[in-house]
Amino acid sequence: MNNVLFNEKLARFHVRADSARQAICLGSRMLLEAGDVKGEFERRVLEREVLFPTGLDVQPVGVAIPHTDSIYVNHSQMAFVSLRRPVEFRYMADKDRIVRVGMVFVLAMAHSHEQVDTLSALMGLFAREETVSELYECASSVELAALLQRNGIS
């Protein structure tokens, strides 16, 4: 997954969000301001999240990976948002189930095959409780970039 770069400017740590929508919007707006996505990206991610939820029930804190089609993306990138307090997302495997999410990775992939590769790499990252804890405890882009790189995501 070396072709997907993590831009250290596209991360916010321990921010306040009152809903999944606010968390997604924060990540989407960072990507828009960086020029990585088109204007309708945020709306499309929010619409997709209703139909195909992205909440994952991992320990010790849930994670969400909202994204949308590559036609709304200019440059492949991801934004990271960790939350002071978890918010409710719908569970990826069951829309009727709620997951408390403390970290949101908003994916913007310019090519559909990158989405599969990126999701796969992130799922590997979330498989270890220790790594999820380290992610959630990150307080700076430097720490986050180093952790991602150590885990093959750069």
Compact summary:
The chain is of the alpha/beta class and 154 residues long.
What attributes characterize this protein structure?
154 residues; alpha/beta; five-stranded mixed sheet
Mean pLDDT: 92
| Residue runs with pLDDT of under 50 for 5 or more positions | none
- Cα-to-Cα separation, first versus last residue: 7 Å
Q: How many H/I helical runs?
A: 5
What is the CA-based Rg, rounded?
14 Å
Q: Shape, please?
A: globular
Give the helix proportion (percent range).
25-40%
Write the H/E string, N to C. EHHEEEEHHH
Structural class by sheet pairing and helices: alpha/beta
Order of strands side by side in the largest beta sheet?
Answer: 1-4-5-3-2
Number of strands: 5
Residues in β-strands, percent: 25-35%
Which sheet architecture does the biggest sheet show? 5 strands, mixed
Task: Give an account of the 3D structure.
The chain has 154 residues and is an alpha/beta fold. The protein contains five helices and five strands; from the N terminus they run βααββββααα. It has helices at 20-33, 41-51, 112-126, 129-137, 141-150; strands at 11-15, 55-56, 62-64, 77-91, 94-108. The protein has a five-stranded mixed beta sheet with strand order 1-4-5-3-2. A hairpin with a 5-residue loop joins β2 and β3. α1 packs antiparallel against α2 (41-51). The radius of gyration is 14 Å and the shape is globular. The mean pLDDT is 92.
